Automatic annotation (TrEMBL):
It comes from the Bacteria. PROSITE patterns: HTH_ARSR_2. This is ArsR family transcriptional regulator. SUPFAM superfamilies: Winged helix' DNA-binding domain (SSF46785). The keyword Translocase does not apply. Keywords: DNA-binding, Transcription, Transcription regulation. One of its GO terms (molecular function) is DNA binding. InterPro entries: ArsR-like_HTH (IPR011991), HTH_ArsR_DNA-bd_dom (IPR001845), Metal_resp_trans_reg (IPR051011), WH-like_DNA-bd_sf (IPR036388), WH_DNA-bd_sf (IPR036390). PANTHER family: ARSENICAL RESISTANCE OPERON REPRESSOR ARSR-RELATED. Residues 1-95 form the HTH arsR-type domain. It comes from Paracandidimonas soli.
Length: 109
């Protein structure tokens, strides 16, 4: 991942509704969700949801698959992992870091 891709992904997630949509897709896992199910779960208008899904897709954070008449949206875990890797690439000045399991924060050794 490069800087431009990271900025695009972070910008897409920097909106309350898009973050909620992405998190719902993460919870759904590889099965994904249709826009109508997402709209019902998140109590958001479908036209608004469509806009947010387009932004997340443009940023590479979600994929879309046509299944018959339905569109299935899925979180792109590889892209998200790439973003996390980019953000933590030089963590702890290149030294080994330990993840604190209870708070999920990084602490240097």
């Amino acid at each position: 991942m490069n800087e431009a891709q990271a900025i695009c992904a972070l910008s897409a997630l920097a909106h309350t509704q898009r973050l909620r949509v992405f998190r719902a897709l993460v919870v759904a896992g590889p099965e994904g969700l249709t826009p109508s199910v997402l709209a019902d779960q998140l109590d958001v208008a479908r036209n608004t949801l469509s806009f947010h899904l387009k932004e997340l897709s443009h940023a590479g954070l979600v994929s879309i698959e046509q299944q018959g008449r339905n569109l299935i949206y899925r979180a792109e875990f590889a892209h998200m992992n790439g973003l996390l890797g980019y953000l933590t690439e030089h963590c702890c000045q290149g030294g080994v870091c330990e993840a604190n399991a209870t708070s999920r924060t990084y602490t240097s050794c």
